[in-house]
Write a structure and sequence with these properties.
Elements (H helix, E strand, L loop, with lengths): L5 H14 L4 E3 L8 E5 L18 E5 L5 H19 L3 E5 L3 H10 L4 E3 L2 H11 L2 E7 L5 E2 L1 E6 L14 E4 L5 H13 L4 H4 L2 E4 L3 H9 L5 E5 H10 L7 E6 L3 E2 L3 E3 L5 H13 L4 H10 L3 E3 L7 H10 L3
Parallel strand pairs: 2-4, 3-4, 3-5, 9-10, 9-11
Antiparallel strand pairs: 1-2, 5-14, 6-14, 6-15, 7-13, 8-11, 8-12
Helix pairs in contact: 2-10, 3-4, 5-11
Amino acid sequence: MRVSGLALWAAILAVAAGAMLLATRYDVGGWSADADISLSNLSSNDGAPLYRPDTSRMRFAIAAVLSPRATLENYQALASYLSTRLGRPIEIVQSKSYAETNALLRSGDVSLALVCSGAFVIGRRDFGMQPLVVPVVKGQTTYNSYLVVPSTSPVRTWEDLRHKTFAFTDPLSNSGRLVPVFVLSEMGETPERFFRDFIFTYSHDKSVQAVADGLVDGAAIDSLVYDSMVRQDPSMASRVKVVWKSPAYGINPVVVHPNISPDLRSSLEAIFLGMSADTEGRGVLARLGIDSFTAPDARAYDSIETMLRATAAR
């Protein structure tokens, strides 16, 4: 990470403050047992232990696509729904990075996870991570990377960002890092040479906020996150504008370890795929902005694999 200037330090401090979410205890699915929402202690998947699942509990890791508080608010209802259908309490684990989520699943510390599509491709390569289901959003199972800049900015193209400041999301993010790195590589550039400074915010909403507040000149973010933020706060569209849109990529999947119990996998798959068929499930999906869950198409992520090979962005 390259950082200079008071504005960028302010952005980093804001991100750090947002990450300090204490573990919260709450009842899920009518269970009286405790269910924790916590930030894990792992930092990467390097040297992660072999798969040793804890069959005494069910843990669901949520990658930090959104800031911790936003993630907590969005996924409590899903945890409750899964808990009721499985007949066991669910513990949501909020990881601090995408690499951490991959490490938790690889080791068996969590039973399933919602991961970024870029992190999925890396997990598939590293230990055979498998997609269980994918969300359908507005009839689509794809999303894009948006290049966003302040609404008053003269920036119109990637070239206009030369020697300016930039916010990536997570090092393993497809829309928030891999795509812009690939675009720069096609220009014969690297982030270190092209930008004056850049930071990692570790969530897409934090990147959008950094642009809206004028802390950075641009950011690459998940189109679904941006569109959702604008729906919830229409004034955001007057502060931030989209100046570039990538091709479509396979949407962020819910994943499992390849050695998961076949019975557990089958149960989880049936619950997710059946959510849109009952009233409670449709209510949970609506809160998440999801139409339904459907079976994955692993080929949808091949273009991400191609970019990874082209940029060696691991």
